[in-house]
Amino acid sequence: MNAYLPTYWFTWAFLIIAAALAQAASHLPVSYVKDAFFAGLFAAILSAALSKVYARTGPRFAPLIGATAGALWVVAMFFRLRWFGYPDDFEMAQWTLGTDISVHAAGFAGAALMTALVPRQGMGKALGAGFLLAAAMTVIPYGTIRWIDYRVAGPVEVVLFVSAEVPAGEFPARRPGAVSVVLRPEEVRFLKERLLVVDGPGGDEVLDDQGHRFWPLWRRRLTYPGNPGGPVRTLMVILPPGLIDSDHWTIPVHQEPDGLALALLGAQKKVTPLGKPLSQSVRLELKLLVQKKGEATRYSAIEVQTFRLSPVGDLYAPITTQGLSAEFPATLPESVPGAKTEVKPRKPRPNFGPAPAQK
Predict the structure, then answer these.
(1) Based on the structure, what is the number of domains in the chain?
(2) 91 and 45 in one domain?
(3) How far apart are CA 256 and CA 230, in angstroms?
(4) Sheet containing 196-200: which strands, arranged edge to edge?
(5) Is residue 349 part of a domain?
(6) Of residues 208, 153, 218, the one with CA closest to residue 180
């Protein structure tokens, strides 16, 4: 029993410390440390069960066996959550999969090296060597993962442009409580290089080659859990007018971690990207829901999802925004500043005085 306990306590303690540092560096919820505390209880059992294997193999190959066992343990727990776990837990496991593999492989490898060195160097030197190996194996992969997350999985900001049927010289009124979208100067310059942008009564208007006018309806920033920072990719999307059926578009996001991109949507999933080179690691999906009542057709809502891809598939949880309004109101209330309304002539008031003298 004494041969197994050092391996067990080393593995469990390292997993807890590494989880606490990852939680502080990545702004993960506090529950991440709590889950690592209880999950480490069982992970350390597997590490301790391999103590005799580590001792017989020796310090040269024992860390390799330990790192392999730690990585396989994380993969097994990942699929356990996928098949039997709660959706929230599986979503967090999707995001932290790379970090979890790095931490467990390092913890198991450090414990393996310590166990293999105890008969040769004593507990003090073996403990120090195991800790240094585990720390190095954690810092290097975790730093690489953070750099990739910073460059690839930063926030994605979506600006949706829609058209509205309003007379010339007028602009559509927003629903009460809606936040007005103001384009930034760099966004206006980017649009002017690719489309016709005019200064209308309601702000900047974008015109297409058919004369349709578009206004920015809303702006949403989609942020991955555990990675709130990093450069912001801004994607401006122009929704085509006159759609009569629900549609779905897969929009590639530009490759640069910061900057602007523009996508023109069309019927039947058509997408025309304008601007930056496209990324192979991030994509955005937009779904338009059309509601029909008799002969009337209106856009009911839009659902936006951004996906981060990996070499082995969509292992990372998508960020979803649902229930966004997809159109301006058709009427112009009088309370909107600058909106033009039709002024009807007043009827003459009745006259109850004496009748005017006839000539």
Answers:
(1) 2
(2) yes
(3) 12
(4) 196-200, 203-207, 213-222, 156-163, 233-238, 259-265, 271-275
(5) no
(6) 218
* Tokens of residue 325, six digits: 């309004």
Q: Which of 220, 136, 214, 139 is nearest to 171 (CA)?
A: 214
Residue 346 lies in a domain: no
Within this chain, do residues 128 and 178 fall inside the same structural domain, yes or no? no
57 vs 1, more confident: 57
pLDDT-derived band of residue 69, with 50, 70 and 90 as boundaries? very high
Co-location of 50 and 178 in the same domain:
no
Q: 10 Å Cβ neighbour count for 148?
A: 14
pTM for this entry:
0.66
CA-CA distance, 78 to 76, in Å (whole number)? 5
In terms of pLDDT, which residue wins out, 39 or 332?
A: 39
Residue 119's domain comprises 5-152
Angle ∠(199,327,292) on CA atoms, nearest 5: 150
Residue 164 host element (H or E): none
Beta bridge mates, 163: 214
> What is the C-alpha separation between 135 and 18, in angstroms, rounded?
9
Q: 138, 103 in Cβ contact below 8 A?
A: yes
Angle at 330 between CA 329 and CA 335, to 5 degrees: 70
Q: Residues 90, 76, 316, 246: is their CA dihedral positive or negative? A: negative
Of the candidates 206, 235, 238, 237, the residue with the CA atom closest to the CA atom of residue 222: 235
Distance separating alpha carbons of residues 171 and 215, to the nearest angstrom? 9
Measured CA to CA in angstroms, residue 281 lies from 111, 224, 248, 262, 272 at distances of 35, 14, 20, 18, 19
Same domain, 140 and 231: no
Mean pLDDT of 94-108: 86
Q: Is residue 34 included in any domain, yes or no? A: yes
Per-residue pLDDT of 170-208, as tens digits, reads: 777 666 666 778 888 998 888 888 888 888 776 778 888
Q: How confident is the model over 269-290, as a mean pLDDT?
A: 80
CA-to-CA distance for 26 and 229, rounded, in angstroms? 9
